[in-house]
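Listing 4. Sequential folding, example run.
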Amino acid sequence: MRLLSGLRRRARPVIGGPACFTGRAAPAAGVDFRPGRRTACRADGRQRAAEDQARAAAFDRLFLTFMIQHHEGAVTMVEELFASPGAAQDDMTYELASDVFADQTTEIERMQLMLDALSGGGRF
């Protein structure tokens, strides 16, 4: 919530939020789901259709694959932020972005190990 209140204080749009979990955009949140806009928090229609058809281990593999892509989107956003001249100069933004990078890369590694175990016929 600290991030959301900080964005609102700075009059910045809030992208994602609850819509990432419900699949519906909350208009007050300023979610941008324009056609062609890649969002890190939403699976596309083909991914959702594949999830609907998958069962058991196949579903687990799809879920992990899509979650890795989702987390890679967050890492990309942080990398783009840090590559932008003058960005992330205030402590709150820098701290948050650094935490997101560390957390998301750790989760990607963890999920990749789980995916590797599933692909080898094992369970995690």
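-- end of first protein; second protein begins --
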Amino acid sequence: MDLLNILRRRKAQLIFTIEGTSFLKKINIYENIIKIKRLEGYKPIDNNKWIIKEKNEIYISDINIFLSISKTPVELLWQENSQKYLLGNNSKTKTLVNGKKISGVGQILSDKDQVKIGGLSFQILYS
């Protein structure tokens, strides 16, 4: 684990799942802005690397089950006043929170909210 991340307080954990598979990946997030997007040309054979995190970006592999995910990033923006993330509404992909389409500029994510982007889902857990 990166020393800087040890010194910082985790803001949340994202638990990713993929529809129709047993895939599960947990990613701790510390940053104020997180971008989640499909990385064109990234096609790992190892399914443990279908989703990777580098600094403040989470990349989704460019394989068939993710083609419904836009290359335009979905953004999580930390809100100091509420101590929660705002899920930005800038993706061209239909993004659902707890089964409902988000509208306007976005939606504040509460603990255990379920976000669905194409066939990919993640649950947010706050520290």
